[in-house]
Amino acid sequence: MTKSEMAGRMNEAQAWLPGKRVKIDFGGEGVVMLDGAAQQVTEEDGPADTTIKVSWADWQDLAEGKLDGMTAFMQGKLKVEGDMSNAMQLQGVFAKLRS
After folding, report:
1. Which of 28, 31, 74, 92 has an alpha carbon within 20 to 30 A of 6's alpha carbon?
2. CA-CA distance, 10 to 82, in Å (whole number)?
3. CATH second-level architecture of 3-94?
4. pTM value?
5. Cβ distance 60 to 1 under 8 Å?
6. How far is CA 46 from each of CA 3, 5, 8, 11, 73, rounded to the nearest angstrom?
7. DSSP of the chain, one letter per residue?
8. Are 36 and 20 in contact (CB under 8 A)?
9. Residues 6 or more apart from 22 whose CB is under 8 A from it?
10. Where are the domains of the chain?
């Protein structure tokens, strides 16, 4: 799945946190913004309540359930800037992607 396809699926599944802006930063691969304030998922960069920095490969493993979020965080594969509670709620986002 490409980043654009993923953003489209997340948008269709309404995979955002209500009222919160969570940016997933894939480094050189770009970003995906889960914009709960605007109720949309885009590939546009901007300010966010929480920024999650992760490689595209590790993100795919997280989304497919091959890598646990807490394990990725403890191993330094996933970094969180801002409100950590928003990052903790992303398990629900992953569930929406797999359904």
Report:
1. 74
2. 22
3. 2-Layer Sandwich (3.30)
4. 0.89
5. yes
6. 17, 20, 18, 17, 23
7. --HHHHHHHHHHTT-S-TT-EEEEE-GGG-EEEEETTTTEEES-----SEEEEE-HHHHHHHHTTSS-HHHHHHTTSEEEEE-HHHHHTHHHHHHHHH-
8. yes
9. 16, 33, 34, 36, 48, 49, 50, 51, 52, 86, 87, 90
10. 3-94
